[in-house]
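Bit of a strange request maybe. I'm writing a small parser for C-alpha coordinate strings and I need a real example to test against, not something I typed by hand. Could someone generate the C-alpha coordinates for this chain?
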Amino acid sequence: MLKALVFVLYAASASPLVFPAVDDQLFRPEYSGSRFAREGRQKRWMSESSRRLRRQNFVFPTKEIEDFLTSIRGKPSSDTIVFPGPSGKPFVPSGEFGYGSEDGPSTWFREFPFCGLKRQSPIDIDLSRARRPPSHEDSALFFNNYDALPSRLTVMNSGHSLRLTGEWAAGKRPTISGLALHGDYSFSEIHFHWGEDDGEGSEHMVQGRRFPLEMHEVHYKTEYGSFNESLKKRDGLVVISYLFNIGKHNHPLSRILKVSGDVVRPESPAVDIDPFRLDELAPPFGRNYAVYVGSLTTPPCTEIVTWIVNLEPQHVSSEQLQNLRGLMRSAGTRMLFNFRPVQSLNGRTVMRVP
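Reply from user aminoacidic:
Good idea to test on real output. This should exercise your parser:
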Protein backbone atom coordinates (compact mmCIF):
# COMPACT_ATOMS: atom_id res chain seq x y z
CA MET A 1 0.00 0.00 0.00
CA LEU A 2 1.29 3.43 -0.86
CA LYS A 3 2.35 5.64 1.97
CA ALA A 4 0.22 8.69 2.66
CA LEU A 5 1.62 11.98 1.52
CA VAL A 6 1.44 14.45 4.38
CA PHE A 7 1.29 18.16 3.72
CA VAL A 8 2.13 20.40 6.67
CA LEU A 9 1.10 24.03 6.37
CA TYR A 10 1.71 26.25 9.38
CA ALA A 11 -0.92 28.85 10.17
CA ALA A 12 1.54 31.74 10.21
CA SER A 13 2.12 33.19 6.77
CA ALA A 14 5.88 33.22 7.32
CA SER A 15 5.98 29.46 8.00
CA PRO A 16 7.22 27.23 5.21
CA LEU A 17 5.21 24.61 3.38
CA VAL A 18 7.24 21.41 3.79
CA PHE A 19 6.71 18.24 1.76
CA PRO A 20 8.12 15.15 3.54
CA ALA A 21 10.04 12.46 1.67
CA VAL A 22 8.07 9.48 0.44
CA ASP A 23 9.03 6.32 -1.37
CA ASP A 24 9.63 6.15 -5.11
CA GLN A 25 6.45 4.19 -5.70
CA LEU A 26 4.24 7.04 -4.58
CA PHE A 27 6.15 9.55 -6.70
CA ARG A 28 6.07 7.40 -9.84
CA PRO A 29 4.46 9.63 -12.52
CA GLU A 30 1.60 8.54 -14.71
CA TYR A 31 1.59 8.86 -18.50
CA SER A 32 -1.98 8.15 -19.48
CA GLY A 33 -2.64 9.04 -23.10
CA SER A 34 1.04 9.34 -23.96
CA ARG A 35 2.17 8.41 -27.46
CA PHE A 36 5.41 7.13 -25.96
CA ALA A 37 3.59 3.98 -24.89
CA ARG A 38 2.77 3.12 -28.48
CA GLU A 39 4.70 0.53 -30.42
CA GLY A 40 7.68 1.93 -32.30
CA ARG A 41 7.70 5.37 -30.67
CA GLN A 42 9.08 3.92 -27.45
CA LYS A 43 12.20 2.77 -29.27
CA ARG A 44 12.90 6.24 -30.61
CA TRP A 45 12.30 7.68 -27.13
CA MET A 46 14.78 5.24 -25.61
CA SER A 47 17.44 5.71 -28.25
CA GLU A 48 17.64 9.53 -28.12
CA SER A 49 19.33 10.02 -24.75
CA SER A 50 19.29 12.67 -24.74
CA ARG A 51 -2.05 44.90 -26.74
CA ARG A 52 -3.59 45.33 -24.15
CA LEU A 53 -6.91 43.48 -24.40
CA ARG A 54 -10.01 45.66 -24.22
CA ARG A 55 -12.99 44.59 -22.14
CA GLN A 56 -15.21 42.26 -24.17
CA ASN A 57 -18.80 41.18 -23.87
CA PHE A 58 -17.92 37.72 -22.51
CA VAL A 59 -15.79 37.92 -19.37
CA PHE A 60 -15.19 36.11 -16.12
CA PRO A 61 -17.12 36.97 -12.96
CA THR A 62 -14.50 37.68 -10.32
CA LYS A 63 -16.10 35.72 -7.46
CA GLU A 64 -16.71 32.65 -9.63
CA ILE A 65 -13.11 32.39 -10.79
CA GLU A 66 -11.68 33.32 -7.41
CA ASP A 67 -13.61 30.48 -5.79
CA PHE A 68 -12.54 28.13 -8.59
CA LEU A 69 -8.81 28.88 -8.27
CA THR A 70 -8.90 28.89 -4.48
CA SER A 71 -10.67 25.52 -4.35
CA ILE A 72 -7.85 23.93 -6.33
CA ARG A 73 -4.74 25.86 -5.36
CA GLY A 74 -5.70 26.94 -1.88
CA LYS A 75 -5.93 30.51 -0.62
CA PRO A 76 -3.07 32.57 -2.08
CA SER A 77 -0.34 33.15 0.46
CA SER A 78 3.31 34.02 0.78
CA ASP A 79 4.16 30.57 2.16
CA THR A 80 7.56 29.33 1.04
CA ILE A 81 7.90 25.91 -0.57
CA VAL A 82 10.78 23.75 0.65
CA PHE A 83 12.00 20.98 -1.67
CA PRO A 84 12.27 17.56 0.02
CA GLY A 85 15.25 15.30 -0.47
CA PRO A 86 15.32 11.50 -0.20
CA SER A 87 16.02 11.82 3.55
CA GLY A 88 13.24 14.32 4.11
CA LYS A 89 15.70 17.19 4.45
CA PRO A 90 15.54 20.19 2.10
CA PHE A 91 17.83 19.95 -0.89
CA VAL A 92 18.85 22.04 -3.89
CA PRO A 93 18.10 20.28 -7.22
CA SER A 94 21.10 19.92 -9.51
CA GLY A 95 19.18 21.27 -12.51
CA GLU A 96 20.30 18.36 -14.69
CA PHE A 97 17.54 16.58 -16.59
CA GLY A 98 16.74 15.48 -20.12
CA TYR A 99 14.24 13.62 -22.29
CA GLY A 100 16.01 10.29 -22.88
CA SER A 101 15.68 6.88 -21.25
CA GLU A 102 18.17 7.62 -18.50
CA ASP A 103 17.24 11.21 -17.67
CA GLY A 104 13.75 11.65 -19.17
CA PRO A 105 10.34 12.39 -17.64
CA SER A 106 9.88 8.87 -16.26
CA THR A 107 12.98 9.39 -14.10
CA TRP A 108 12.55 12.99 -12.97
CA PHE A 109 10.76 12.12 -9.72
CA ARG A 110 13.91 10.44 -8.38
CA GLU A 111 15.76 13.71 -7.95
CA PHE A 112 12.82 16.11 -8.22
CA PRO A 113 10.07 14.65 -5.99
CA PHE A 114 7.49 17.26 -7.04
CA CYS A 115 7.49 15.64 -10.49
CA GLY A 116 5.55 12.73 -9.01
CA LEU A 117 2.81 14.66 -7.25
CA LYS A 118 -0.87 14.85 -8.19
CA ARG A 119 -1.34 18.27 -9.81
CA GLN A 120 1.19 18.01 -12.58
CA SER A 121 1.29 19.50 -16.06
CA PRO A 122 0.75 19.18 -18.96
CA ILE A 123 -2.69 17.61 -19.31
CA ASP A 124 -5.04 16.44 -22.04
CA ILE A 125 -7.85 19.02 -22.13
CA ASP A 126 -11.23 17.34 -22.55
CA LEU A 127 -13.55 20.13 -23.70
CA SER A 128 -16.68 18.04 -23.06
CA ARG A 129 -15.83 17.86 -19.36
CA ALA A 130 -14.55 21.42 -18.93
CA ARG A 131 -16.57 23.75 -16.71
CA ARG A 132 -17.96 26.94 -18.26
CA PRO A 133 -18.22 30.26 -16.40
CA PRO A 134 -21.48 32.22 -16.15
CA SER A 135 -22.01 34.62 -19.03
CA HIS A 136 -22.62 37.85 -17.12
CA GLU A 137 -19.93 40.54 -17.17
CA ASP A 138 -17.84 41.18 -14.09
CA SER A 139 -14.07 40.85 -14.64
CA ALA A 140 -11.83 40.27 -17.66
CA LEU A 141 -8.41 38.92 -18.64
CA PHE A 142 -6.07 41.80 -19.51
CA PHE A 143 -2.80 41.85 -21.44
CA ASN A 144 -0.98 45.05 -20.47
CA ASN A 145 1.93 46.63 -22.39
CA TYR A 146 2.01 43.81 -24.93
CA ASP A 147 2.16 46.55 -27.55
CA ALA A 148 5.21 48.17 -25.92
CA LEU A 149 8.44 47.91 -27.90
CA PRO A 150 11.21 46.40 -25.76
CA SER A 151 14.62 48.03 -25.58
CA ARG A 152 16.26 44.64 -25.97
CA LEU A 153 15.34 41.06 -26.94
CA THR A 154 17.75 38.19 -26.37
CA VAL A 155 17.72 34.60 -27.68
CA MET A 156 19.62 31.79 -25.99
CA ASN A 157 19.85 28.00 -25.86
CA SER A 158 18.98 26.88 -22.32
CA GLY A 159 20.07 23.30 -22.98
CA HIS A 160 16.42 22.25 -22.88
CA SER A 161 14.72 24.75 -25.22
CA LEU A 162 15.12 27.95 -27.22
CA ARG A 163 14.51 30.88 -24.89
CA LEU A 164 13.54 34.52 -25.48
CA THR A 165 13.91 37.22 -22.81
CA GLY A 166 13.54 40.98 -22.98
CA GLU A 167 14.11 44.35 -21.35
CA TRP A 168 11.66 47.25 -21.28
CA ALA A 169 11.65 50.83 -20.09
CA ALA A 170 10.48 51.40 -16.53
CA GLY A 171 6.77 50.68 -16.23
CA LYS A 172 6.55 49.15 -19.71
CA ARG A 173 7.25 45.47 -19.02
CA PRO A 174 4.29 43.39 -20.26
CA THR A 175 2.00 42.01 -17.58
CA ILE A 176 -1.18 39.97 -17.36
CA SER A 177 -3.95 40.63 -14.86
CA GLY A 178 -7.63 39.99 -14.21
CA LEU A 179 -9.09 36.49 -13.94
CA ALA A 180 -9.00 36.80 -10.12
CA LEU A 181 -5.24 36.28 -10.23
CA HIS A 182 -4.73 38.38 -7.08
CA GLY A 183 -2.34 40.85 -8.65
CA ASP A 184 -0.29 41.46 -11.76
CA TYR A 185 2.07 38.91 -13.30
CA SER A 186 5.12 40.22 -15.16
CA PHE A 187 6.58 38.73 -18.32
CA SER A 188 9.68 36.64 -17.71
CA GLU A 189 10.43 34.61 -20.84
CA ILE A 190 9.16 32.66 -23.83
CA HIS A 191 10.33 29.14 -24.63
CA PHE A 192 9.21 26.34 -26.92
CA HIS A 193 8.41 22.61 -26.94
CA TRP A 194 8.52 20.53 -30.12
CA GLY A 195 8.74 16.94 -31.38
CA GLU A 196 10.84 14.71 -33.57
CA ASP A 197 8.31 15.06 -36.39
CA ASP A 198 5.37 17.30 -37.26
CA GLY A 199 2.88 14.87 -35.71
CA GLU A 200 3.91 15.65 -32.14
CA GLY A 201 5.66 18.28 -30.06
CA SER A 202 3.15 20.11 -27.87
CA GLU A 203 2.99 19.32 -24.20
CA HIS A 204 -0.72 19.99 -23.74
CA MET A 205 -3.17 17.96 -25.76
CA VAL A 206 -6.73 18.95 -26.70
CA GLN A 207 -9.30 16.20 -27.15
CA GLY A 208 -6.47 13.67 -27.35
CA ARG A 209 -4.69 15.55 -30.10
CA ARG A 210 -1.10 16.72 -29.91
CA PHE A 211 0.19 19.72 -31.87
CA PRO A 212 3.62 20.10 -33.52
CA LEU A 213 4.69 23.08 -31.40
CA GLU A 214 3.78 24.74 -28.12
CA MET A 215 5.00 28.13 -26.93
CA HIS A 216 5.05 29.00 -23.23
CA GLU A 217 4.88 32.61 -22.16
CA VAL A 218 6.00 32.63 -18.53
CA HIS A 219 4.93 35.34 -16.06
CA TYR A 220 5.93 35.73 -12.41
CA LYS A 221 3.90 37.47 -9.73
CA THR A 222 5.03 41.09 -9.76
CA GLU A 223 4.82 41.61 -5.99
CA TYR A 224 7.40 38.85 -5.42
CA GLY A 225 9.98 40.85 -7.35
CA SER A 226 11.56 38.17 -9.52
CA PHE A 227 11.05 34.85 -11.25
CA ASN A 228 13.34 33.01 -8.81
CA GLU A 229 11.51 34.36 -5.77
CA SER A 230 8.15 33.48 -7.34
CA LEU A 231 9.30 29.86 -7.74
CA LYS A 232 9.04 29.58 -3.94
CA LYS A 233 5.41 30.73 -3.80
CA ARG A 234 2.26 28.70 -4.29
CA ASP A 235 0.71 31.35 -6.56
CA GLY A 236 4.03 32.32 -8.13
CA LEU A 237 3.54 31.82 -11.86
CA VAL A 238 1.06 32.22 -14.71
CA VAL A 239 1.98 30.52 -17.99
CA ILE A 240 0.13 31.29 -21.20
CA SER A 241 0.28 28.45 -23.69
CA TYR A 242 0.00 28.88 -27.46
CA LEU A 243 -0.47 25.80 -29.66
CA PHE A 244 0.62 25.68 -33.30
CA ASN A 245 -0.58 23.87 -36.43
CA ILE A 246 1.52 23.27 -39.53
CA GLY A 247 0.77 26.02 -42.01
CA LYS A 248 2.31 29.08 -43.57
CA HIS A 249 5.55 30.68 -42.47
CA ASN A 250 5.27 32.47 -39.12
CA HIS A 251 7.03 35.81 -39.64
CA PRO A 252 7.29 36.94 -35.97
CA LEU A 253 8.70 33.54 -35.05
CA SER A 254 11.22 33.77 -37.89
CA ARG A 255 12.81 36.77 -36.15
CA ILE A 256 13.82 34.40 -33.35
CA LEU A 257 14.67 31.36 -35.46
CA LYS A 258 16.95 33.25 -37.84
CA VAL A 259 19.59 33.30 -35.09
CA SER A 260 19.09 29.68 -33.99
CA GLY A 261 22.23 28.77 -35.90
CA ASP A 262 24.19 31.12 -33.63
CA VAL A 263 23.00 29.41 -30.43
CA VAL A 264 23.17 25.76 -31.46
CA ARG A 265 24.92 24.74 -28.26
CA PRO A 266 23.97 25.68 -24.67
CA GLU A 267 27.37 27.22 -24.16
CA SER A 268 26.86 29.50 -27.17
CA PRO A 269 26.70 33.19 -26.21
CA ALA A 270 23.20 34.68 -26.11
CA VAL A 271 22.30 36.73 -29.19
CA ASP A 272 20.41 40.03 -29.29
CA ILE A 273 17.81 40.41 -32.05
CA ASP A 274 15.91 43.39 -33.42
CA PRO A 275 13.21 44.25 -30.86
CA PHE A 276 9.56 43.64 -31.71
CA ARG A 277 6.32 43.83 -29.72
CA LEU A 278 5.21 40.71 -27.87
CA ASP A 279 1.70 40.96 -29.28
CA GLU A 280 3.13 40.21 -32.73
CA LEU A 281 4.33 36.76 -31.62
CA ALA A 282 1.80 36.13 -28.85
CA PRO A 283 -1.49 37.83 -29.77
CA PRO A 284 -3.74 38.68 -26.80
CA PHE A 285 -7.03 36.82 -26.62
CA GLY A 286 -10.25 36.91 -24.64
CA ARG A 287 -12.17 33.86 -25.83
CA ASN A 288 -11.66 30.17 -26.57
CA TYR A 289 -9.17 29.27 -23.87
CA ALA A 290 -8.89 26.89 -20.92
CA VAL A 291 -7.72 27.56 -17.36
CA TYR A 292 -6.48 25.08 -14.77
CA VAL A 293 -3.98 24.90 -11.91
CA GLY A 294 -0.91 22.74 -12.33
CA SER A 295 2.87 22.69 -12.34
CA LEU A 296 6.01 23.49 -14.24
CA THR A 297 6.41 20.94 -17.04
CA THR A 298 10.15 20.63 -16.36
CA PRO A 299 11.98 19.97 -13.09
CA PRO A 300 11.56 20.91 -10.34
CA CYS A 301 7.87 20.49 -11.40
CA THR A 302 6.60 22.70 -8.57
CA GLU A 303 2.82 23.02 -8.46
CA ILE A 304 2.69 26.80 -8.53
CA VAL A 305 1.34 27.52 -12.03
CA THR A 306 -2.00 28.85 -13.20
CA TRP A 307 -2.19 27.68 -16.81
CA ILE A 308 -4.07 29.65 -19.47
CA VAL A 309 -4.15 27.59 -22.68
CA ASN A 310 -5.19 29.40 -25.85
CA LEU A 311 -7.34 26.95 -27.82
CA GLU A 312 -7.05 28.94 -31.07
CA PRO A 313 -3.97 27.48 -32.79
CA GLN A 314 -1.28 29.68 -34.34
CA HIS A 315 0.68 28.56 -37.41
CA VAL A 316 4.24 27.45 -38.06
CA SER A 317 5.95 25.94 -41.10
CA SER A 318 7.71 22.57 -41.21
CA GLU A 319 10.91 24.35 -42.20
CA GLN A 320 10.78 26.48 -39.07
CA LEU A 321 10.39 23.42 -36.88
CA GLN A 322 13.49 21.92 -38.46
CA ASN A 323 15.46 24.90 -37.18
CA LEU A 324 14.46 23.99 -33.63
CA ARG A 325 15.43 20.34 -34.06
CA GLY A 326 18.92 21.44 -35.03
CA LEU A 327 19.68 22.72 -31.53
CA MET A 328 21.87 20.72 -29.14
CA ARG A 329 21.21 19.65 -25.56
CA SER A 330 23.44 20.11 -22.56
CA ALA A 331 24.37 16.43 -22.90
CA GLY A 332 25.68 17.01 -26.42
CA THR A 333 22.86 15.28 -28.30
CA ARG A 334 20.42 16.85 -30.74
CA MET A 335 17.32 18.45 -29.28
CA LEU A 336 14.93 16.44 -31.47
CA PHE A 337 12.10 16.60 -28.95
CA ASN A 338 11.59 18.24 -25.58
CA PHE A 339 8.02 17.67 -24.42
CA ARG A 340 6.72 15.97 -21.31
CA PRO A 341 3.89 13.41 -21.67
CA VAL A 342 0.48 14.42 -20.36
CA GLN A 343 -0.22 13.83 -16.67
CA SER A 344 -3.36 12.57 -14.96
CA LEU A 345 -5.92 15.22 -14.04
CA ASN A 346 -6.51 13.58 -10.64
CA GLY A 347 -9.85 15.27 -10.03
CA ARG A 348 -8.80 18.78 -11.00
CA THR A 349 -11.28 21.07 -12.71
CA VAL A 350 -10.58 22.70 -16.07
CA MET A 351 -12.52 25.85 -16.90
CA ARG A 352 -13.12 26.88 -20.51
CA VAL A 353 -14.16 30.23 -21.93
CA PRO A 354 -15.75 29.53 -25.35
